[in-house]
Write a structure and sequence with these properties.
single chain, 426 residues, alpha+beta, UDP-n-acetylglucosamine1-carboxyvinyl-transferase, Chain, four-stranded mixed sheet, 13 helices, 23 strands, cell wall biogenesis/degradation, cell shape, EC 2.5.1.7, transferase
C-alpha cells in the first residue's frame, strides 16, 4: 500500500455483528416471523443463516433486512457441524432450540482462533436450568423435558454464556437469576429484543439479570444496535491515517472507552446524538490499553490499537485479559517493521514511522483489520492475504476505507477459485 494521505468523509455504520448473531439465534424462540433491520451482508450472518436452517428455520434476505421464521423447530441436522465450524455464535442456538424443542444437538463452535474458548459456562448454566448434557465426537446433546428457573452464578461474565442461558430462561418455568452476567451492549440488546417478543426480563445492562419464564414468544420487527466495533475500527483508522471522518448511526456512549483513548492519542472527537466526528492531524501518540469485559476497553479493538501504537509517537503497552492467545497479529506487524516485545499478556509497542509495506496474512477477523490499518500508512505496497476472515465481520471494509480516500482495493480471484482473497493497498 502506498500511503494515500488522510481520510475524509462520512460512513453509515451497520447493525452490530455481535448483536445480530444472537438475535438470529433468539428468533428460533418466536412463534411468528422475526424481521431484523439493517443487517450487514457478512460471512458470519450467511453462515449463521445456514446454522438456523439446520434447526428448522427459514431465513431470507429482504434488502437490508433478514426475515426468520421457525414454524416447526427441530433439534439439529447432519450439516450443522460444517456450518458451526465457521463461527462461534453457532453455539448460541443451544439455549433457544432447547427451550423450544426439549432437546437439541449442537456442534462445538468455531470462530476466531484467539484462545481455547471452552463452553463450560454455557453448559453449566443450561444444566442448572434442568438440561442433561452429553458431549461426544464434537457434538453436544442437551435434553430437558422442562426447563426450570434457577439462580445461576457465572464464574466469569461470559458474553456467550449469558446469552445462551438468557435465551433458555425466557421459556423456563419460574424465575431465573443470572449473577455476574456480561453487561456488553450486545447482551443488553438481546434482552431488549426478547422483551419486545414478550419475555419478562429485569436488570437490562446490569450484572444481575432476573427472568420470569413465559409460555410463548411472538415474532417482531427489530433494529439491532449499531456496530461499536466497526465504528471503533474506523475511528482508529482515522487516528492512524489522519483526516476528518464522521460516523453516522452510532451510539457514542458505546464507544466511550475508544473515544477516551483516541483523545489521549491526539484526536479531536465531537459527539452528537447518533453520530461521531473524528478529526486527527499528524501522527498519533502511543496509548496504553487493557482489554477487559465491558465497560472496559473492548478486546475486539485490541489488535486495532496495536496497529495504531505501531505507527505512533512513543511507546504503548497493550494488555489483553479476555483471551489468552489474541496477539497473533503482532507477528505480521513485525514483518512490516513494527517494534514489539511480548511480555506475558502485554505487548510493548514502540512506534515506527513509516512502517514498510509487504505481504502479510490476516490471522483472524480483527487481526486482519489491524493489518489493513497499518497498511494505510506503510511505505510501498501492503497485501493482506486471507481477507475472507475480515469479511466475517465487516461488509466491505476496503470499500468503506476507499470511499474515505484510502488507496485500497480487493484483488480479484481467478474465476472459479475458492481460496483466499487479498486486500491490496498501494
Ligand atoms: C459472537 C460474539 O458475540 N463474539 C464476542 C463474544 O465472544 P464469546 O461469547 O466467545 O466471549 P466470552 O465472553 O464468552 O469469552 C470471554 C472469556 O471467557 C472464556 N469462557 C467463555 C465461555 C465459557 O463457557 N468458558 C470460558 O472459559 C473464554 O475462553 C474467554 O477467555 O464476546 C467476546 C468478548 O467481548 C468478543 O471478543 C467476541 O467478539
Ligand atoms: C472474536 C470475534 O468474533 P467471534 O467471537 O465470532 O470469533 C470478533 O468479533 O472479534
Amino acid at each position: 500500500m502506498r500511503a494515500a494521505g488522510p481520510l475524509h468523509g462520512k460512513v453509515q455504520i451497520d447493525s452490530a455483528k455481535n448483536a445480530v448473531l444472537p438475535l438470529m439465534a433468539a428468533a428460533l424462540l418466536a412463534q411468528g416471523p422475526v424481521i431484523l433491520e439493517e443487517v450487514p451482508d457478512i460471512r458470519d450472518v450467511r453462515n449463521m443463516a445456514q446454522v438456523l436452517r439446520c434447526y428448522g428455520a427459514t431465513v431470507q434476505r429482504e434488502g437490508r433486512a433478514l426475515r426468520i421464521e421457525t414454524q416447526k423447530p427441530c433439534s439439529g441436522c447432519e450439516e450443522v457441524e460444517k456450518w458451526s465450524r465457521e463461527l462461534r455464535a453457532s453455539f448460541l442456538v443451544a439455549g433457544p432450540a432447547l427451550a423450544r424443542c426439549g432437546s437439541v444437538r449442537v456442534s462445538m463452535p468455531g470462530g476466531c482462533n484467539i484462545g481455547s474458548r471452552p463452553v463450560d459456562l454455557h453448559l453449566k448454566g443450561l444444566a442448572e436450568l434442568g438440561a442433561s448434557v452429553e458431549q461426544r465426537h464434537g457434538i453436544v446433546t442437551l435434553t430437558a423435558e422442562k426447563l426450570t428457573g434457577a439462580e445461576i452464578h457465572l464464574d466469569y461474565p461470559s458474553v456467550g454464556a449469558t446469552e445462551n442461558i438468557l435465551m433458555a430462561a425466557v421459556l423456563a418455568q419460574g424465575q431465573t437469576v443470572i449473577v455476574n452476567a456480561a453487561t456488553e451492549p450486545e447482551v443488553e440488546d438481546l434482552a431488549a429484543f426478547l422483551r419486545t417478543m414478550g419475555a419478562k426480563i429485569d436488570g437490562l445492562g446490569q450484572d444481575t439479570l432476573t427472568i420470569t419464564g413465559v409460555e410463548a414468544l411472538n415474532g417482531v420487527r427489530y433494529t439491532p444496535i449499531p456496530d461499536r466495533i466497526e465504528a471503533g475500527t474506523l475511528m482508529i483508522a482515522t487516528a492512524v491515517a489522519g483526516g476528518d471522518v464522521t460516523l453516522q448511526r452510532v451510539i457514542p456512549e458505546h464507544l466511550s472507552p475508544v473515544t477516551a483513548k483516541l483523545q489521549q492519542a491526539g484526536a479531536q472527537i465531537d459527539q452528537q446524538p447518533g453520530s461521531l466526528r473524528v478529526v486527527m492531524q499528524g501522527r498519533p501518540k502511543a496509548v496504553d490499553i487493557k482489554a477487559m469485559p465491558h465497560p472496559g476497553f473492548p478486546t475486539d479493538l485490541q489488535a486495532l490499537i496495536c496497529a495504531m501504537d505501531a505507527v505512533a509517537e512513543g511507546t504503548g503497552v497493550v494488555t489483553e485479559t479476555v483471551f489468552e492467545n489474541r496477539f497473533t497479529h503482532l507477528g505480521e506487524l513485525l514483518r512490516m517493521g513494527a517494534q514489539v516485545q511480548l511480555e506475558d499478556r502485554s505487548a510493548v509497542i514502540t512506534g515506527t514511522w513509516p512502517l514498510s509495506g509487504t505481504r502479510v496474512t490476516a490471522p483472524d477477523l480483527r487481526g486482519g483489520a489491524a493489518l489493513v490499518l497499518a497498511g494505510l500508512v506503510a511505505q510501498g505496497e501492503t497485501v493482506v492475504d486471507g481477507a475472507e476472515l475480515i469479511d466475517r465481520g465487516y461488509q466491505g471494509l476496503e470499500l468503506s476505507l476507499a470511499a474515505l480516500g484510502a488507496d485500497i482495493h480487493r484483488e480479484a480471484l481467478p474465476q472459479g477459485t475458492d481460496g483466499d482473497a487479498g486486500v491490496i493497498m498501494q
